[in-house]
Design brief:
Length: about 250
């Protein structure tokens, strides 16, 4: 909310802008516009009026001023907000979102869980636009927060980009990203010589056990092959004896 001095300054700039644009106005109408614009920072409103003087060809309206105020357009477009919320469904992905995006996604998530992506998108956009309109009516700016994913590399990239965009403060980023000291503390220590020797003995024992198992399997295979050959030889001998018996029977007939 503008102070009384800032409102007086805005009254002067707004009146001068209308005069430059060849538009008549009454003090009452001017005061009404100042009251509506007092929710925005003075520097942003002055910048918006400067753009109006160079861009607006017809009458100067409150809407033409507001649509050029950066803080009034701080909310993401609905399609962009949906893409952001959808990417956040990947557990590895870190996203920077706000209450309007999160709330709309909460409304759309049950539909998305049913596999209806089109229906979920429609529900999200409807909820999101309603929430943004309410935020604008209450002069609330989006409050950006981080939803951290499991991928540390993506987490750092997204948070650094959010700092550059002015969505989160550097102090907040420091809390979200571990310091180099904490990262170093999480690295495993190299094993001691005793631990290395223990691991070497365990590895050798496992190798011996594997070799023994393979050797046993090989012996079992050889024994099975030997028994198979013996069965084949017995069957061959039986066939020979049977043939001899048949020949003897034919000779006596």
């Amino acid at each position: 909310m503008l102070t009384a001095d800032e409102q007086d300054r805005l009254f002067e700039v707004l009146g001068a802008t209308m005069e430059v644009m060849g538009q008549e106005y009454t003090p009452a109408a001017l005061m009404l516009m100042v009251s509506d614009l007092s929710a925005y920072p003075l520097n942003e409103t002055q910048h918006a009026l400067a753009r109006c003087r160079s861009e607006v060809k017809g009458r100067l309206t409150l809407a033409s001023i507001v649509e050029r105020i950066p803080s009034d357009n701080a909310h993401l477009p609905a399609a962009e907000a949906w893409a952001l919320a959808l990417s956040g469904q990947d557990e590895s992905e870190t996203i920077i979102w706000n209450g309007e995006v999160a709330g709309a996604m909460a409304d759309a998530r049950p539909i998305l869980a049913l596999g209806d992506k089109v229906g979920a998108r429609m529900a999200f956009i409807s909820s999101y636009e309603r929430r943004v309109e309410q935020a604008k009516a209450e002069s609330r700016q989006p409050q950006w927060t981080a939803s951290l994913g499991s991928d540390p590399a993506r987490r750092q990239d997204v948070i650094e980009q959010a700092v550059e965009q002015g969505r989160i403060a550097p102090e907040q980023a420091k809390e979200l990203l571990p310091s180099p000291d904490r990262l170093e503390a999480k690295l495993p220590l190299p094993p001691s010589p005793e631990e290395q020797e223990r691991r070497r003995r365990n590895a050798n024992r496992m190798i011996q056990e594997i070799r023994h198992a393979l050797s046993s399997e090989s012996r079992n295979d050889r024994m099975a092959q030997k028994r198979q050959r013996e069965r084949e030889q017995q069957e061959q001998r039986r066939q020979q004896l049977l043939a001899q018996a048949e020949q003897m029977a034919e000779g006596t007939s």
